[in-house]
Amino acid sequence: PSTVHSVTNVHRIACIPGDGIGVDITDAAIHVLNTLSATIGGFEFAFTTFDWSSKNYLERGWYMPPDGLEQLKKFDAIYFGAVGWPNVPDHISLWSLILPIRKALNQYVNVRPTRILQGTKSPLSESVCKPSDLDWMIIRENSEGEYSGQGGTSHEDSPYTVATEVSIFTRVGIERIMRFAFETARSRPRKKLTMVTKSNAQRHGMVLWDKVFYEVAKEYEDVEIDKMLVDAMTVRMVLQPKSLDTIVATNLHADILSDLAAALSGSIGIAPSSNLDPTRANPSMFEPIHGSAPDIAGKGIANPVGAFWSAAEMVRWVGEEKAADGLMKAVENVTARGVKTRDLGGSEDTKGVTEAVCREIED
Ligand code: GGG
């Protein structure tokens, strides 16, 4: 008799639940991912959880141990919950955890897809935005710009305090994000890329940003392009959502625009993000875009959909395309049936939505 060998791919995942509802939704995501691998078969996840949080910082004085970044390099991907807690200044928590990880692991692209899921609604009226009108792919530069961390403060605690926050834009940094954005736009049906800038007021970095955009555009003649100032862009997102498809913007601009995008698609609770090292030399990191929401932390009512969508993007990145599609289909079947948390107009809690998604995967 012949022996049948079944091959199981094991994907090593570092989990950093972080703070507040980050813990609630990471638990939910792990449960769903385990259900997914057990149901589909052929792959599994080996999760290692790291308690790198503001609680840790308040008790021990550090978020990550000194070799934390080296530890993360041993994994295939990182799943991140949220960071931020009332007793720790936000710039300390961000600069102790999430920003060093993005920078050290060369995650220079942040991808933020936005669309209206079945059974959910945009706050925009139907005359402006039918469900199919809002389908955007926001590409955020994730390594430099306004988040370069350069600057300083002098004459502190005096009326003459001076603080500088230096935005750094490099040709290499701009070129690589533009190429990623053009490739993304080319891969989508509409082949359309809108570049966001503020080069009328910011006359150095943003002018270089524009210049490199038009240079790279010459390599992508099949992609339709346009340019928007960031202030006008907010208006266009609200009044003409259908006119947009792929969007590329700086670290700060895309951070702000993607929160607006999430709200226009129904709730910030559904929005996913992928921090990618496209070279794949380092693990990429997947996290919902929402923060730690201390006011509802531990109450079991956080919306886990952004966490599931981020998990689906992670599953796709590690090569399990079919499973990723299956997970997103399960999530949308659940929202379509009206099983939703309160932010989406439903009455379910985190556990109710999570169990419903698991049952949908198993069916
Ligand atoms: N899960 C995302 C999170 O914790 N976000 C907190 C935040 O403000 N992040 C800033 C950023 O994404 O740059």
The CATH fourth-level homologous superfamily of the largest domain: Isopropylmalate Dehydrogenase
Please state roughly what percent of the residues sit in beta strands, choosing from under 5%, 5-15%, 15-25%, 25-35%, 35-45% or over 45%: 15-25%
Name the overall outline: globular
Give the beta-strand count. Answer: 12
SSE sequence, one letter per element: EHEHHEHHEEEEHEHEHEHEEHHH
Overall pLDDT, averaged?
96
The largest sheet is:
10 strands, mixed
Label the CATH architecture of the largest domain.
3-Layer(aba) Sandwich
Ranges with pLDDT <50 over ≥5 residues? none
CATH fold field value of the largest domain: Isopropylmalate Dehydrogenase
Helix content: 25-40%
CATH C-level class of the largest domain is Alpha Beta
Ligands, ions, cofactors: glycylglycylglycine
Structural class label: alpha/beta
Question: Gyration radius, to the nearest Å?
Answer: 21 Å
Number of domains: 2
Cofactor: Mg(2+); Mn(2+)
Catalytic activity: (R)-malate + NAD(+) = pyruvate + CO2 + NADH
EC number: 1.1.1.83
Keywords: Magnesium, Manganese, Metal-binding, NAD, Oxidoreductase
Question: Care to describe what's here?
Answer:
It is an enzyme of class 1 (oxidoreductase). InterPro entries: ICDH/IPMDH, IsoCit/isopropylmalate_DH_CS, IsoPropMal-DH-like_dom, TTC_DH. Residues 12-357 form the Isopropylmalate dehydrogenase-like domain. Keywords: Magnesium, Manganese, Metal-binding, NAD, Oxidoreductase. By secondary structure, this protein is an alpha/beta fold. It has 2 domains: 9-107 and 279-363, Isopropylmalate Dehydrogenase, CATH 3.40.718; 122-265, Isopropylmalate Dehydrogenase. Helix content is 39%, strand content 22%. It has helices at residues 21-40, 54-60, 68-72, 90-96, 98-104, 171-187, 205-217, 230-239, 251-264, 305-317, 321-336, 350-362; strands at residues 9-18, 43-49, 77-82, 109-115, 135-141, 145-154, 162-168, 192-197, 224-229, 246-249, 272-276, 284-288. The strands form 2 sheets. A 10-stranded mixed beta sheet has the order 2-1-3-12-11-4-5-10-8-9, sandwiched between helices. Helix 1 (21-40) runs parallel beside helix 12 (350-362), helix 6 crosses helix 7 (205-217) and helix 11 (321-336) packs across helix 12. The radius of gyration is 21 Å and the shape is globular. The mean pLDDT is 96. Bound molecules: glycylglycylglycine (GGG).
